[in-house]
Amino acid sequence: MADKCHLCLLGLIFLSSLLTGLSEVDHVFISSGEDVRLPCNNALPDCKSTHWIYNRFSRSPAVELITGGRKKTDTERHERLSLGSDCSLNIKSVTKEDCGLYFCRQYVNGQQQGTDAGVYLHVLHVSSSEISAGRSVTLFCQLYSYAQVSCDAWIRSEGNDLFWVNQAGVKLTNSDSRYQISAPDHCIISLTTTILNEDHNREWRCNITHRDQVQTSVSYTVKISGEKTIS
């Protein structure tokens, strides 16, 4: 237990040092498959000075996505990116691989202006085991965040909560004998249940909250005769 707390503390210390030099930091939560807008809170007029830089792993080189207000076309996901009129970065059809730390930076005549504005993008994603009537299925809900900082340490320090609800919005717990809820850490939670014929079109939803306010959610709709649907 002491070792785990020590690791949490190290993660938070690293996070604090990482944010040094940033004028402002935002946290944006989104579900996989949705479109997202990342704000640029240090933008100058007309966006010609705007650069967007992305980093997912501390040991990997940062990737420049936008240079001088223009989208770079040699990046893997350039077709899903666009620059908003307010210099925000728009990403279409977000995937779990899009999570990470984004920097909005301003250059004028080759000189950086002010400090960076940072945005952490957190992506909520649901996957499942094979589904069929009469068999047990497990739904996995995971929050993907910047890889350098322990997600478990960060989510606990910020007062976030990850949980499953039914169609009526009622939180599912192990007190209901039909469900088995397992949370190996604060950033992943699974729901295991046996699929019944009457479960066709039933929806379960995974929520992430911050101080009791829902930030984003992902729903799983049971399709017994066809394919499962995640939204």
From TrEMBL:
Lineage: Eukaryota, Metazoa, Chordata, Craniata, Vertebrata
Gene Ontology annotations of biological process type: interleukin-15-mediated signaling pathway; positive regulation of ERK1 and ERK2 cascade; T cell activation
GO cellular component: external side of plasma membrane; membrane raft
Protein name: Uncharacterized protein LOC113100671
SUPFAM superfamilies the record matches: Immunoglobulin (SSF48726)
An annotated Gene Ontology molecular function: protein tyrosine kinase binding
Ranges for domain Ig-like: 30-105, 117-225
Organism: Carassius auratus (Goldfish)
Keyword list, A-Z: Signal
UniProt xrefs under PANTHER family: DIVERSE IMMUNOGLOBULIN DOMAIN-CONTAINING PROTEIN 1.1 ISOFORM X1-RELATED, T-CELL SURFACE GLYCOPROTEIN CD4
Primary gene name: LOC113100671
First and last residue of the signal peptide: 1-23
Record PROSITE patterns: IG_LIKE
